[in-house]
Amino acid sequence: MEYVSPEGLRIDGRRPMEMRKLQAEIGVVAKADGSAVFEMGNTKVIAAVYGPREVQNRSQQLSDQALVRCEYSMANFSTGDRMRKPKGDRRSTEISLVIRQTMEACILTQLMPRSQIDIYVQVLQADGGTRSACINAATLALADAGIPMRDFVTSCSAGYLNSTPLLDLNYVEDSAGGPDVTVGILPKLDKVTLLQMDAKLSLDIFENVMQLAAEGCKAIAEYIREVLSENTKQLEYRRGL
Amino acid sequence: MLHNKAFVKKTKSGKITKNVREHYLRDDIYCGVPICRVCDASAARLSGSASSPILVLDTNVVLNQIDLLENSAIDDVVVLSIVLQEVRNRNLAVYNRIRALCSNSARKFFVFSNEHHKDTFVQDMAGESKNDRNDRAIRVAAQWYRSHLGGAAQVLLITNDRDNKRKATEEGIPAETIEAYVKSLDRQDLLDLLVRPASEDVEMEEVEDLRPSKRKVLYAEHKPLSEITSGLHRGIYHQGKLRVNRYNPFEAYVGSESIGDEIIIYGRGNMNRAFDGDIVAVELLPQDQWHEENSLSLADEEDEEEGVHLVPGSADDAPRTTNLVQGASGPPPSRPSGQVVGIIKRNWHSYCGSLEPMPMPAGAGGVAHALFVSKDKRIPKIRIQTRQLGNLLNKRIVVTVDSWDRLSRYPSGHYVRTIGEIGDRDTESEVVLIENDIDARPFSSQVLACLPPLPWTVSSEDLANPIRQDLRNLRVFSVDPPGCKDIDDALHCTPLSNGNFEVGVHIADVTNFVHPSTPLDDEAAQRGTSVYLVERRIDMLPKPLTEDICSLRADVERLAFSVVWEMTPEAEIISTRYTKSIIKSCAALSYIEAQARMDDSRLADPLTTDLRNMNTLAKIMRHRRIERGALTLASAEVKFQIDTETHDPLDIGMYQIREANQMVEEFMLAANVSVAEKILKHYPLCSLLRRHPTPTKEMLEPLLRTAASVGLELDISSSKALADSLDRAVGEDPYFNKLIRILATRCMTQAVYFCSGDLTLPEYQHYGLAAPLYTHFTSPIRRYADVIVHRLLAASLGIYKLPAIFQDRPQLTSIADNLNYRHRNAQMAGRASVELHTLIYFRKRPTDTEARIVKIRSNGFIVFVPKFGIEGPVYLTERSEKGGGEWSVDEQQQKIKKMDGSISYGVLQKVNIHMEVVEPQPNRPKLQLTLV
Known about the structure:
- The complex is a heterodimer.
- In chain A, 30% of the residues lie in helices and 29% in strands.
- Chain A has 4 helices and 9 strands.
- Chain A has helices at residues 90-104, 130-145, 171-174, 203-239, and strands at residues 22-26, 34-40, 43-54, 67-74, 115-125, 154-161, 164-167, 180-186, 191-197.
- The mean pLDDT of chain A is 91.
- In chain B, helix 3 (81-90) runs antiparallel to helix 4 (92-103), helix 14 (425-435) packs antiparallel against helix 26 and helix 20 (606-628) packs across helix 21 (659-682).
- Classes of the chains: A alpha+beta, B alpha+beta.
- Chain A binds chain B through residues 5-7, 9, 11-14, 20-21, 41-42, 80-81, 127, 163, 170, 172, 200-205, and chain B through 3, 5, 15, 17-26, 81, 99, 102-103, 111, 113, 115-116, 801-802, 804, 807.
């Protein structure tokens, strides 16, 4: 299968180093403390954050820091064929864990001891790169909820097909079976908080691919910052400041 | 940059799913014309002069006229991405050729990604078929080129679709058919390359009328694809690849998985226009019709017959003639026969051959219709039209098939190019190369640029390199056939103080010069192997590497990859060491010289002692291997003596195998096995190994039958049992054993390369060598497989990183497939070349010689001539009287008897024959065997 034509175009018309179109909106769930919808091309994810609030299960309470919980799910209509997926299957448990760990790394949990923060993310439409989109949506929702963070975490994936590193794989490219590197970084601190790959890749190629994914993360961070400052301006305006 | 969404509906295995895919439209796709002021001209491919128009091709032009497009007269072509996409879906071979044209820097073919350009993308319209939408996209792109370039250059849409042309003209786009365009170029030779679609073929039908039995439907209609699919589902039809019998073009086999057996198809009518290699759907005939084969294949009016050919080396290229012995009185046939109802995938490509002799037509210079006869007997005659008949009549030409309709006996095709005079040795050799798809072109400048500068010597860096061990102090020597220039292996054998021996196999370090993913490496991977013809060698790697830098010649320092064992005097391997090394060979011996040294008891110099030690060890190893059940197979290899001036063969004879050959072979086998173990241990999923599948009972059936007829029992339960019973097969005739071995070899399939991740461990078995693991390591100069194995071994030693390609299993599998394909073709080409030279040899020398009968036919038998390694039919009856006449065949006894019982011939019997070259038709010489 030819994923990159000799003319240098991918199947959907992007070049190897290009990301899909980004789109984000803040405050989509009025009831939640913070919420956001994040789109990368046809991948669409909603995130809602509750907290910091009282710990529901006392036994889980931590005396020195906040408890972060995360629940990931996929809407039944998110893929083309409507399928009923059992809640709490392996994959979603794993992704929940990944998102929780990634977000925990940037939330200043020690400022909110004996409290709990809940992050709910749901995939509304899946077209590859759901993991990254969930993390980006969660970051926006956390920021919307006003939870103190070191930096935003942003995430992006990159792959390696037809001997070319490709940024931000869509579903077709993702199912090609090549390596898929998901990277999450703290752009300001320039630190990696998430790095996942489930295939083999030689070290020098891996470095290139990871570099590419990190570039993608920075571009997303740039976009998220814009969205947030636009949102802040709106808030200012509404308060008549 | 615009952003858009395209909705696609797709059916997958009966289920209908809706797929939504993003489709980005761009503004940074350039037109590729250098004179354009708007676009970035750095990637421009077209010439863009105002005089010649820029051609925009329609899909049907690319699909049908690819031979014409490959001619350098056609240039300045824009290939739209939608056209490429359609071509790829319809015919992958054509797609690869047009892609090759687009990437060829000598040609001005430019790919314009119209589907992603913001101005040329077209939305699907309601009620519009896919085809119409694509035609519209092509017109929109052509229109865009016109307006984009303004008046700076002309744009011409080339389409053979009448509707498309009309609409284009309506929209003001200049459009032409390909015929009209070629005519406007005023080039006679190009016109022959044109493919004429059946609908426009008016003249052709007139010719048809001249012949009897025309205007008659000759073939059954092919079933539509939907019916075939449902038929396959319900089990009425069977799908498989059609293989035409190499020695009887009216008989074909379809290996069907659904039925678990091969379906035989007799006669052109049942084959129903299918070619060799086509994927077809077959319907079984009712059982009472399973028998008509013999009458049918003989009754056909065409006079194709068996020719003399080389002895086949294995089951893969042996003729399949199992059923022909069954005369009218035979038992009911057990194998099903069938007829082709549809063709799922065509395997048409170009064929080499010549025109059937015919008188020049009255109106000279006009269009003539000729019949083309392929060299490959499996291909039917092909009708072509030509304007240069006089030129082509006694030439070897290449022809491509275009179509085959129900009304015509033969398919129609078109002329592609001329190779040369028939009968000329160079032409015929060229034909051999083309038929076997062997690239004999000189290496390109990019490839040659990868070579190290000459003259090359071992540098101080190589000496200082810690990975390279200095073994120059060892007494290393090589043993090869006389006159061998590409020496890729050398040996040494040093007695150790503890009574053991240190034995080393040193292989040319080709991977030190051939680095992965360089043009040199790509070219070598493509060629796969060197090809040895009788009079020339087609190298896998450029000459400086094969004959100088890598060749382990005597008295020069060379880089090597060494496998060094410590062996006990009983040839038990105590330890194995692998290392890159520097060696200096002290002697390049030929097999004859090495043998002479070992035999000459007066010699006691160190080198001879080494040779004798090695020979002792090799004998033990060989013995042990045979104990394990390795088969000693035999082949009838022949050797030509070629006149150095005229390159004509002077003499032929069997290739003689000496002890020295076996000694070298034994150590090479041991090195290959050691390396196979090492690389598999480190890379269980991506090693390249070689396996030899265990032959099935059915494959050994002909051997058993022949053996039984001479009262010999063969035990085929295991390779060991077979080897033992072959050893016991000794008759009063000294040649008997060898003959049985040759027949056994012929029943086996060939060993193949494979990627270790694709199969399970028990399947790795090499049957012939009785080795659980085997690979090729010892000839990297002439086999690409060895190059890959060298890289794997180097990586397992931590010397180099494993190239990225090894991570990609499908790609590795495709490399292994290509190597198998090239390997088989190289062997076929070698055999064809020997056949060609045999013919040249006997042309001047009619000979009487001794031969053995290997197979009995209804009207004669097949003999094998040991002295010249050839095999061919001897007819007892004239061809005109069909069916055997006064001869009768006893199948059980494998005997043919005269009715009055005066003479009988049995299989393996010795007969005297006369060999002579005859020319029944002009320019078609063939070797004829007759009884003396």
